[in-house]
């Protein structure tokens, strides 16, 4: 049954959900609020420092030790740890002194700090732990599945992890079983169902059943796209899966770059060929490295440029620095100027700012002197730099620090006055105050909840204008998600005021108001398409989603360029979150 609401419109996730435009968060412990969209709950928890919620838990520091609390303010892990790391795949590393263990997302210690070192849990449910300089594995219950016996361990690739013992290599599977004994003189990770290994002076490929096929070359690497890098007489080329040469060995090294490009090197310089061996980019570059969205950074004579997924240069190597892409834009610098570049290679410089940070929810933090503000992806200043500090926007709001007293306080050196008048609060993406400036410290919102600190006491803020949808699951790492709306969307175009170029407002609206993040809170570089007047498709990242990993689609509606229908009605509530995962 579809329900219509006056002044707003519902959103339908393709073939699964229809949900209304209203939502209320009920709280029985509300302190007070001057805005009906949030509640504040004071806690009897002392802290010197606080952090954002992650996986439903927030880290806090009391004295020299860290603990964890949940969204209701219940201490789940008392402050007894020297450190607590970020959650990875549902688990976080903890330490006491020099010993390491793990807690789960309920705050339960599943592995007491007892190991010299450890790696984060993989999506496959195993974590490598080290004692006496040897590595073994524990599972999500904290049970030891392989005693520490390996000299080195490597990450899971396609369901198998490479391990080394006594100078020999082998593989374990995702259950912690030894798939191939450590009998190989050398080995590469699995790719496309095969791993290149060396045994008894012969290189070959081993498949996921353990079958070995010898290749008559000095060395080979694991295949990608049906081609095997092969080495003969000190030079690298390519063969097919049967060992037949398709590119004569003539390069110092060879590796894959994206889906269709192959990076090659010779004489200390790098270039690019396609899988047919055709030269795409001449060997004159100091380095070539991926920076997201299928794009790669090229460096030549100390200057940076960008090539696209086909190897075409879209930004000549003339820049001083290029950041990774986020929300389709990368921050760049040139001759002391900050700016940003889109995926087409168009650069906008904003020389009036001393620094620009990565875009988040359509806005980027900017710094001018000691003050902070925000610009949009047109380069327009949408929130003037008037704040003493600011976080990135998350779930439609940003924590900002502001002087609520006289201008002389900031430079007075009077710590009492600074503490009294320079406070943290929250603004929305239009720059309007969402929660007034009353806190000594404030975290970003995550899952509709933020942690704040005042006079060394914690409080929890909950955004009531948020709706959480049921979890979705897919098996295809290149899954295309479709979001259907109950009315046709406003997809008008305008002209840029600076150069009269046509701007598709809907493109910017989708990028600014829909995002995908992984379980670690990191942005996933997806793209969007208005498939028809009431359907938006979320296209997968260039290399697909990772299996056994959780993701969240967040849809926002508190910006200048909101998702609207033809009549100008805006989507409600202001935040909608749709979790999904990609299973094996």
Number of strands: 59
Instruction: Identify low-pLDDT runs.
Output: 1-35
Task: Report the CATH topology name of the domain at 11-23 and 468-582.
Answer: Immunoglobulin-like
Average residue pLDDT = 89
Short description:
With 584 residues, this protein is mainly β. Helix content is 3%, strand content 54%. It is globular.
Kindly list the characteristics that best describe this protein.
584 residues, mainly beta, five-stranded mixed β-sheet, four-stranded antiparallel β-sheet, 2 helices, 3% helix, disordered N terminus
Itemize the secondary structure elements and their pairings.
Blueprint: E1 11-13, E2 38-46, E3 49-54, E4 57-62, E5 65-70, E6 75-81, E7 83-84, E8 91-96, E9 99-104, E10 109-115, E11 117-118, E12 126-131, E13 134-139, E14 144-150, E15 152-157, E16 160-165, E17 168-173, E18 178-184, E19 186-187, E20 194-199, E21 202-207, E22 212-215, E23 219-220, E24 228-232, E25 235-239, E26 245-251, E27 253-257, E28 261-266, E29 269-274, E30 279-285, E31 287-292, E32 295-300, E33 303-307, E34 313-319, E35 321-322, E36 329-334, E37 337-342, E38 347-349, E39 355-360, E40 363-368, E41 371-376, E42 381-387, E43 389-390, E44 397-403, H1 415-421, E45 422-428, E46 433-439, E47 441-442, E48 449-454, E49 457-463, E50 466-468, E51 472-474, E52 481-485, E53 493-495, E54 502-504, H2 505-513, E55 514-518, E56 527-532, E57 535-539, E58 549-556, E59 575-582
Parallel strand pairs: 50-59, 51-59
Antiparallel strand pairs: 1-52, 2-49, 3-4, 4-5, 5-6, 7-8, 8-9, 9-10, 11-12, 12-13, 13-14, 15-16, 16-17, 17-18, 19-20, 20-21, 21-22, 23-24, 24-25, 25-26, 27-28, 28-29, 29-30, 31-32, 32-33, 33-34, 35-36, 36-37, 37-38, 39-40, 40-41, 41-42, 43-44, 44-45, 45-46, 47-48, 48-49, 52-57, 53-54, 55-58, ...
